[in-house]
Design a protein that fits this description.
The complex is a heterotrimer of chains A (86), B (353) and C (346). With 353 residues, chain B is an alpha/beta fold. Chain B has eleven helices and eight strands. In chain B, strand 3, helix 6 and strand 4 form a beta-alpha-beta unit. The longest helix of chain B is centred in the first third of the chain and has 26 residues. Chain B is globular and about 50 Å long. Chain C starts with 6 loop residues before the first helix and ends with a helix. Chain C is an alpha/beta fold and 346 residues long. The chains are: A mainly beta (86), B alpha/beta (353), C alpha/beta (346). At the B-C interface, helix 5 and helix 6 of B face helix 4, helix 5, helix 6 and helix 11 of C.
């Protein structure tokens, strides 16, 4: 079994918000245990009032959700982990 | 240049429309004399007659096909006739009969005929936005159909008209706006409601062409409308046309026109677009016998429509509950507590969502 | 008639949850892919994606001809939707806030709603009028109304009020496919916007495939024996929260989400009232001459002998005020609902 893949907030950070350090987790569309396809939207984050959809990095199952809906996080924080299916 | 055949066709439509209004006067007054009761007689309710407006309907609609849309205002008969609306069913509607165009639910200022894409709104200027929408549909579907919105000069201050000019202009939609200027908005003369005496000037504010035709000359209307309709069909956007017409029969039947100077009424009656077109036809070599023949044919058609309409049954009272929806709810959900209405509604289209 | 809804089973079968706005957009996009006659127009619906995210992403997929920004000119473009619908297209036209209906009501109630009837059925007007409704975010009297009753009162329009993502998608599919004008009223607070957090209820599982929810089928969100609570929109969630509180005190409330006002599922309301004998109607519209009065009248007409008590909670006939303390006072809250149910139960 391969390792779980991090969903890192940096990967979804908008290009024009390099100087911003904090984000807000507006909506989760999956729960722990949900099956997801690569590219499917996992959650919606907000950086500087701009909404960004965060895509699943792999097809598999969401094993961990690390930032709760309605919570703040720092750039570079891992939002969730996805265990790729075999 | 307009052909003699086209002029003859317009003449026939115009004399049909004129005779139609004259005959409706007779029918309308049945049961309303000596005491005028608006709800009495075979044609109840308001009746806005278009005698004196004929040149506009005929001159514009000569350029239209069945797939072109026309929206008309509360004074629609001459336009409906020129657009080819079924005259018998239109007359049955005016008489409030079951086989009328709208099954007796619309009446004379709400005539709808999908076969020739004809619709009305009795609210001033409010037929303009749906005409813009029909033009929008034509453009999206890449057809060369056009839409024409008719309105009176009393409507040119209304938001629905001005908003429609703007929306049609910004999207280059194939629509022609035709203002029939009969000088009077019920009792309000034009100079007391707007400083713009030439309504076609409204077009400049929206960067579209505006054309004013100062006399109710059917040939001039034909020519201006031909250019506007071609411009629309070719994808070059909307045009506004204002046509001077005359109101020969008051705002509606029963209007004593006490507010209107006698001289103005006389002038309206002297300036007769039909007589003018007859002159034109004579100058093209059409004989009086030929003109008589056209008039006779038109009169017969009107008489036939009126006799047919009067023989038609009245709607069954239960039909009042039908046609609220095309796809009526399966149950008596909107009946306000009365069980009666669902029955008629539900069977018509099966009622499935 | 739906009593126990199958929706929940289907909804929980999917791993994916959506906000109401995303569910709405998914249905619109699906219908636009299937049917070229469907298009969307409104103010700020293209590049912006809808002020309340009712059209997010549609411009990218469908382009400007099918996702049209229009001038701030509601009479013109709502009327144009009527004309396009009469020509056989299936326009969706958005009125940004329902409160703006006043500048275009003639097109809505004289043309959109009546042309089918006044043409004796020879014309149909298959359009959807989408509009944002509701308060709770301090936007004051011209941007906070629901006006449910105003639209439901006038004949000729079907009126739809989703309260969950699952319902939002299914009702939108039904609305676009319907041959009649449908007023689709989405509550801003339920859309799942990052900048206007929703309560927890409206985000639900949403199947990826298309599905329809028939109009005229209320949803019993929570079965109960003691008191019937009939409501819609945002207040479905407030009523559910109140029902949980009441459950702790041994009061078993049945919560009914009407989902559509026209057609109205009177039977589900009557069945419930026959069981509980007590009826509370909760609405975010003005109290007098509106939804609450209508539901109580139907209950009285259909089940008078079973009714022992009725109450209603609605905006108490004042314009909706701005300040938090004032708006909270007039908009029925969870505690108000719980208190009203307790009074009925006594």
């Amino acid at each position: 079994m391969s390792d779980a893949v991090d969903v890192n907030s940096t990967d979804s950070w908008p290009d024009d918000a390099d100087d911003v350090a904090e984000g807000y987790l507006a909506n989760w569309f999956v729960r722990e245990g949900s099956a997801v396809d690569e590219g499917e939207t996992l959650c919606e984050i907000q950086v500087e009032k701009v909404s960004i959809d965060v895509a699943a990095p792999a097809t598999g199952a969401v094993t961990e959700i690390l930032v709760a809906e309605g919570g703040d996080f720092d750039r570079g924080d891992v939002l969730a982990r996805v265990q790729p299916s075999a | 240049m307009v052909s003699v055949t086209d002029l003859q066709t317009m003449y026939e439509q115009m004399v049909t429309a004129r005779h139609y209004e004259e005959r409706l006067v007779d029918e309308y007054l049945v049961g309303k004399q000596p005491a005028f009761d608006i709800s009495a007689g075979p044609i109840p309710g308001e009746l806005h007659l278009a005698a004196g407006h004929e040149a506009s309907g005929a001159g514009v609609c000569m350029h239209l096909r069945d797939d072109d849309t026309v929206t008309a205002p509360h004074r629609p008969h001459h336009i409906a006739i020129a657009k080819g609306v079924d005259l018998k069913r239109m007359t049955a509607e005016i008489f409030g009969r079951k086989t009328g165009l709208c099954r007796g639910k619309g009446g004379h200022m709400h005539l709808f005929d999908p076969d020739v894409n004809f619709a009305c709104s009795g609210i001033i200027a409010q037929g303009c936005p749906p005409a813009v929408g029909a033009a929008m549909a034509a453009k999206k579907r890449n057809t060369d159909s056009v839409a024409v919105a008719f309105l009176g000069e009393g409507a040119i201050d209304q938001g629905g008209f001005l908003e429609s000019l703007n929306l049609a202009a910004v999207h280059d939609l194939p629509v022609v706006f035709v203002v029939e200027d009969n000088d009077w908005a019920i009792s309000m003369p034009k100079d007391r409601v707007t400083d713009v005496q030439n309504g076609a000037q409204r077009a400049a504010g929206f960067d579209l062409p505006g054309v004013r035709i100062d006399s109710d000359d059917a040939t001039a209307v034909y020519e201006a409308a031909g250019e506007a309709v071609m411009r629309a069909r070719d994808g070059n956007g909307p045009t506004l046309i204002e046509v001077q017409v005359h109101r020969r029969m008051g705002h509606f039947m029963g209007d004593a026109e006490a507010y209107r100077p006698e001289a103005d009424i006389d002038r309206a009656k002297q300036r007769d677009s039909i007589e003018r077109l007859a002159e034109d036809l004579r100058s093209h070599g059409v004989t009086d016998d030929e003109l008589d023949e056209i008039r006779e044919r038109a009169h017969e058609r009107v008489e036939e429509a009126i006799s047919w309409a009067k023989e038609q049954p009245e709607p069954d009272p239960e039909e009042a509950y039908e046609n609220v929806f095309t796809n009526p709810p399966a149950q008596a959900a909107t009946d306000g507590g009365s069980a009666a209405d669902a029955s008629g509604d539900a069977d018509e289209t099966g009622g499935d969502n | 008639m739906a009593t126990e809804s199958r929706d929940y089973t289907e909804a929980t079968e999917t791993d994916r949850e959506l906000t109401m706005s995303r569910a709405m957009v998914e249905a619109i996009a699906w219908e636009m892919r299937e049917n070229e006659e469907v298009f969307y127009m409104g103010e700020d619906v293209a590049d912006y994606g809808g002020i309340f995210s009712s059209t997010t992403g549609l411009l990218d997929e469908f382009g400007r001809d099918r996702v049209m920004d229009v001038p701030i000119s509601e009479t013109a473009y709502l009327g144009a939707a009527v004309g396009a619908a009469q020509a056989g297209m299936r326009p969706i036209a958005e009125l940004m806030f329902v409160d703006f209906f006043g500048v275009a009501m003639d097109q809505i109630y004289n043309n959109m709603a009546k042309n089918t009837y006044m043409s004796g059925g020879s014309f149909s007007v298959p359009m959807v009028l989408t509009t944002a409704v509701g308060g709770t975010y301090n936007d004051a009297g011209q941007h906070s109304q629901t006006l449910y009753g105003t639209f439901a009162h006038l004949p000729g329009m079907k009126v739809v009020v989703p309260s969950t993502a699952y319902d939002a998608k299914g009702l939108m599919h039904s609305a676009i496919r319907d041959d009649d004008p449908v007023v689709y009223m989405f509550h801003k607070r339920l859309m799942g916007l990052g900048w206007m957090p929703s309560p927890s209820g409206p985000k639900t599982g949403v199947p990826k495939d298309d599905y329809t929810i028939p109009f005229g089928e209320a949803d019993v969100k929570r079965p109960g024996d003691d008191v019937t609570v009939v409501t819609l929109g945002l207040h479905v969630h407030r009523a559910m929260e109140a029902a949980e509180q009441l459950d702790d005190d041994g009061i078993d409330a049945e919560v009914i989400d009407l989902r559509t006002l026209v057609p109205l599922d009177t039977e589900t309301v009557l069945d419930s009232v026959r069981k509980t004998g007590k009826l509370l109607v909760v609405d975010e519209d003005y109290q007098s001459f509106g939804v609450t009065g209508e539901i109580i009248a139907r209950a009285a007409e259909g089940a008078l002998d079973d009714l022992s008590a009725v109450k209603r909670l609605a905006i108490p006939d004042v314009p909706i005020p701005y300040a938090r303390s004032l708006e909270d006072e007039v908009n029925p809250g969870t505690d108000d609902i719980a208190a009203a149910v307790r009074e009925l139960h006594e």
